[in-house]
Amino acid sequence: MAGLSKLTFSFLFIVLLCISCTSHRVMEKAVKTIAGPRCIVYRTRTDCRFLVPVIMTHDKSAIASFPDVKDIYFKGELAIPEELTGGYLLDNRGIGPDVAFLKVTYGEYARMKETPAPAELMQMIADRDPLVDMYDCGTRSQYPDAAGAMKLLIGKGELHRQKRLK
After folding, report:
1. With contact defined as beta carbons under 8 Å apart, do 84 and 41 qualify?
2. Which residues neighbour 159 within 8 Å (Cβ) at sequence distance 6 or greater?
3. The pTM is what?
4. Would the pLDDT of 33 be above 60?
5. Is the pLDDT of residue 20 over 90?
6. What DSSP character marks residue 115?
7. 121's torsion region: left (phi>0), alpha (psi -120 to 50) or beta?
């Protein structure tokens, strides 16, 4: 009987050890996927770099989200995307696949006294389907230098290994 209880104890110990190791891996994965601003890299059909982005509904029939005139800054500067290589840009606003660009530059938008109504913004849209491609490269916080890291990815031809959004 003593041999059986040692065997049972050993088996339980091994099972608990395995569960503990798996839990640790789950926790590591959870830590790596902490929410935060996304590192979005994209290309557009035409030069939209200085134009203000808005988010359209998926069917492009209405504007789902748009910035306030005071909310177009990133780290104290206008949130103009950073130019990378190969025509790619690094987003500083929080855009996604349903982005559209207004005919208004960041500078012009920042000088407006008040944020235009959605109906006005609809009339200001320059391009409802501007993207060539777009990639989600994780969170910005995982890169000490997001722009430098993205340039390296593009230069190595490895951007396609990231999550393609469009």
Report:
1. yes
2. 41, 88, 135, 137, 150, 153
3. 0.76
4. no
5. no
6. P
7. alpha
CA-CA-CA-CA torsion sign (148, 155, 105, 66): negative
Q: Which of 129, 106, 124 is nearest to 44 (CA)?
A: 129
Least confident of 7-11, 28-32, 160-164: 28-32
Amino acid at 98: D
Q: Which of 28-42, 51-65, 123-137, 139-153 has the lowest mean pLDDT?
A: 28-42
Residue 2 has φ and ψ, to the nearest 5°, of -65, -35
Q: Which tokens belong to 84?
A: 């990378």
Distance CA 100, CA 67 (A): 12
What are the helix (H) ranges across the chain?
Answer: 2-32, 106-111, 118-123, 146-155
